[in-house]
Amino acid sequence: MEITRNIRELIDLALTEDAAGGDITTAATISGNGEGMVSTAVARAKEALVLCGIDVFTEVFKRCDGRVEFSKARKDGERLEAKDEIIRVTGPTPALLTGERTALNFLMRLSGIATLTESVVKSLEGSGTKVVDTRKTTPGWRYLEKYAVRVGGGSNHRFSLSDGVLIKDNHITASGGITGAVKRARDYIPHTLKIEVEVKNPNEIDEAIKAGADILLLDNMDRKAVESAIEQIDGRALVEVSGGVTPENIKDYAIDGVNFISMGYLTPSARSVDINMKIEIP
Questions:
Q1: Quick check: is 198 catalytic?
Q2: What is the pLDDT of residues 72-85, one digit of tens each?
């Protein structure tokens, strides 16, 4: 993945958060503060996972000390089992000790999202329905978390508010209704952009279609309501299902005619997987 300026700034913020006043334990326990001391550490998976974030992991150590080197690195998207080696890190011992937790935090979090996403995507194999994320991401982490969704086999919804028109309930209320909101959006945007409208009932579906919506977001509907909505829409718009979808019930919504299932669950609800890093004794 590309390490952008924003990612470097996020890494620097994380390192400052963890060691703004220095690494007192390393300074106190290693003779001469480790000057001239070089070590090799190995990161390993402690459970089955989909690896994601290896470039961020290495960038953390580069920000700690430019002399750190890496070998035998696995690639993002690889499936690992417990005890599998991920990467070897060689460099000044203080840099390895200071950067360890921050580097692992990034790797564990992003691998957790990729692992969860892969399991959800696999549950829909053969359905023709795409799993997409939402903007429910950790502030400052959106680029990374949406990247992790892609590594896990999912797709991205809008990255930001400037990426597309999604008219939701509050927009509808503020603008006085679906018809007016869609008309104003159509007049405002270029012809290359689609308009998506959140709908909750048959009346809103009918109004959105007549107004010219390209995509309908069926919000918080149960399976029966979604099936009825698919019949009503009858191929006149793309269909996205959202709201209350979890790994346990997602198969209920993989109905013929549902193009996308968006899950905020993928990012805020993913747990960090377990990865450790140990310095090897020569």
A1: yes
A2: 989 999 999 999 99
Put simply, whether the predicted model's pTM sits higher than 0.85 gets the answer yes
Q: How does DSSP classify residue 270? A: P
According to the model, what pLDDT value does residue 34 have?
Answer: 60
Catalytic residue flag (residue 136):
yes
Catalytic pick among 198, 204, 207, 240: 198
Q: How confident is the model over 195-226, as pLDDT tens digits?
A: 999 999 999 999 999 999 999 999 999 999 99
- Of the listed 122, 168, 184, 278, which one is catalytic? 168
- Domains of the chain (ranges; CATH) run 5-120+271-279 (3.90.1170.20), 164-266 (3.20.20.70)
Residue by residue, what is the 3-state secondary structure of 198-259? Answer: EECCHHHHHHHHHHCCCEEEEECCCHHHHHHHHHHHCCCCEEEEECCCCCCCHHHHCCCCCC
Helix-then-strand count for the chain, H and E? 9, 12
- Using the 8-state DSSP alphabet, how is residue 70 labeled? E
- pLDDT tops 70 at residue 31: no
With tokens 């309501």, the residue in question is 225
Q: Respond yes or no: is residue 240 known to be catalytic.
A: no
What is the C-alpha to C-alpha distance for residues 252 and 59, in angstroms, rounded to an integer?
A: 41
Catalytic annotation present for 79: no
Q: Which residue of the set 44, 79, 135, 136 is catalytic?
A: 136
